[in-house]
Specification:
Belongs to the FKBP-type PPIase family. It catalyses: [protein]-peptidylproline (omega=180) = [protein]-peptidylproline (omega=0). Its EC number is 5.2.1.8. InterPro entries: PPIase_dom_sf. Keywords: Chaperone, Cytoplasm, Isomerase, Rotamase. This protein has 158 residues and is mainly beta. The protein has two domains: 7-64 and 126-148, Chitinase A, domain 3; 74-119, Thrombin, subunit H (Beta Barrel). It is built from two helices and eight strands. The strands form two sheets. A four-stranded antiparallel sheet has the order 2-1-8-3. A hairpin with a 2-residue loop joins strand 6 (103-112) and strand 7. It is elongated.
Amino acid sequence: MKIQPNTMITVRYTLEPVGSEAFPYPKGPYRMEALVGHGRLLPGLEEALMGAEEGAAVEVVLDPQDFAGEVGAEAHIAREDVVEEGPLEVGAVRHTMDENRCLRPFRILAVEGDRLRVSFGHPFAGKPFLFRVVVEKVRWASLEEIRAARTPVRGGGL
């Protein structure tokens, strides 16, 4: 069966930034199940998978605007506002506490004395990413799965 709207797919994938820079996060493999055609996948990824069958291997590069967005606006915070211990180095991802007492991740752009110049954009922002996907299973979605897709996903799908 080919991937098309209203199919449920199970895929195994890895992801990594395009280029030679160090990537301090696990690349995978990850496994997920998703409903096709209902906004549960990143549009560029879904488009690349359309028509693939079980066992197919698909590679697609998603541009920054199609994956994690562009690098967010810069801000300055005090060193003392960083909640975890450890080196404060350019490129490191750390956290601060917002006014609602929720952790808010940021990437260090520069260390300027007792202040940090940071970006609150997604750590993967501004980079194209390569997805290597293997389609494990394709089946028709049930009516219950399609109905459930009408419930918004917080933060969007992958």
